[in-house]
Please model this.
Amino acid sequence: MNISRSIYRPLFADPSFPLFIVLAGSFFLTVFFRISASVILPLEGERLGMSASLVGFISSVHFYAYAMMQPVSGILHDRYGPVRVVTCGLLITAASCLLLTVVRTPLSLGVWRLVSGLGVSPMYSATLVFMAFAFPAERYCFYAGINFAVSSLGAIVSVAPLGFVLDNFGLPATFAILSGTSLLMALFLGRSFKGDHVHFSEPPHEVAYDSMGRFLRVVVDLSGTLGRRMVQCGLSDLPGVGPLLELSDQRRDDAGASHGGWRDPIP
Model:
């Protein structure tokens, strides 16, 4: 017992541990909101007379926002640090919860899913970045295990316990509690900016702008390539279209070669 205490006590007594637990708690909210729609939307869909396809679409909006924000979240962590970014994310999450305490319509449910997806999007990467900078490398797996254990509780709480709370207190009160919890966590993090251990190898604004510019260029180029391929599939058999498309691709490749050697990612 004494050996166990001597091993684990320094791990929990680390000055960065309280801040880490709150960040892990924010990842708990990420998993909670990801799954909670399976309990909330069927009930609201029946009450509002929504079709199954509309309920499914409203639920999926959260994941579209979450996925699209992942590259942006990484850039924001590089520029501002994970503690500041998660603080803003918690405030956005709290606002999305407050919306459902006021009005519940198909539109407001869709806005809730969209805004909550934006709010919780930086939580997972934030905990990983914070662990990498705040703790010694040999302790990373220990704290990563705690992070996943805490977040897994979000999946548990978001099903049967959430249904129990909804049955006994109603949706407005439940989301008022969730909003208050998010605000309290944001308040704690807002007072702990100095505890952020992220250090930059380059000036933050240069890292952010350069990474964002590259990301946007890739998205635009890939979208244009996919669009041309779709046009080719539908119009290549028309008289005169095939040679015109080939000429357009050749000019684009020539322009790419003169600007860093870019080539069509879809041959």
Notes: Residues 201-205, 233-238, 261-267 have pLDDT under 50 and may be disordered. The domain at 2-199 is CATH 1.20.1250.20 (Growth Hormone; Chain: A;).
